[in-house]
Amino acid sequence: MKPFTYVLPKDLAEAAAAGAAAQSLYKGAGIDLVDRMKERLQTPAQVVNLLPLAELGGIQAAADGSLTLGATTTLEQLASHPGLAGPALAALRTAAATTATPQVRARATVAGNLLQFTRCWYVRSEHHRCLHGGRGPTCLAMTGENRYHAVLGWLDCVRVHPSNLAPALLALGAEYTTLHDGKTQRRPLAELFPAQPRAEAPEHTLRPGEILTALHVPAQPAAARSAYTESREKLSHDWATTACAVRVVLAGGTITAADLVLGAVAPVPLPRPEAAKALLGKAPSDELFRKVAAMAFAGATPLGHNTYKLTVGPAIVREALHEAVR
Ligand SMILES: Cc1cc2nc3c(=O)[nH]c(=O)nc-3n(C[C@H](O)[C@H](O)[C@H](O)COP(=O)(O)OP(=O)(O)OC[C@H]3O[C@@H](n4cnc5c(N)ncnc54)[C@H](O)[C@@H]3O)c2cc1C
To answer: Edge-to-edge strand order for the sheet containing 46-49?
Structure first.
């Protein structure tokens, strides 16, 4: 690992000032960051540890049921918080509770989970001349070992976005707040991810020095229900091969609002609004859910080794829909 200066800020202002310096990076638990530093894939001159900052930690639940998640809230805190009990926020609770291992969940932060780097083995190896890493002319995964890679939404790079929390937070209509250059800004969560996820685009849209300070989960209607399901090769220590978060509002046996977001199949967490729209005004049924699941994967382009995602993915969508209305 290349030597670096380690900063333990006393408050958010000090963290932001340190983070604004050239070649500075913020650290949550460091699970992804330190891994990449050890591999020399990231070589910051300075690492600013955000964990000591009390103002970034913890979950605040408002009387209307909306939640503010501090950036350094751990996945374990999220999964076990009483504000997430019940069917409306089940997608977020499940996404947090099924990530990685108990050890990882006890340390990993909400911000770090959303901002983690892709797991594509080509870009995560210093030995490969990969387009996304800026080290080579082509996406090696496009014709190489691509069983975990994208089937939707890719342009010139077939990496997938690995976060469990991202599809769940998007389906629930979350927003995020950042601090940059002394200014606080709150935006829809979709803006945290590149609209055109080309190889040269990073995994997220934060500017150098910008701190993700909080996530905001809006109050849900009384009849809202959500679910998160995923497929993976191993039950533990593993990332999803396909994932789906859904949120539906049921009134008098009819679906009156719906959101559906796919994970692990595209370079960004991928909302599928057309599929969600097909649920509106209908009563839940397996026939409807099969149709919607097929719509969610409409236009998918498999690579040499990931055709299975076109079978497993729709099954995961169908399972999420059944789970949400159960
Ligand atoms: C065995 C294993 C299995 C896993 N399985 C899954 C899985 O199934 N699903 C899943 O989603 N994840 C999985 N993970 C990944 C894990 O959830 C992430 O690595 C972890 O959440 C990252 O959080 P962190 O706090 O350690 O982030 P860090 O490693 O500290 O940071 C990650 C990135 O975010 C930046 N950053 C962190 N906080 C901020 C902030 N507040 N503002 C600005 N930038 C910031 C850092 O500079 C870095 O670039 C797994 C990890 C392991 C080790």
So the answer is: 5-7, 46-49, 24-27
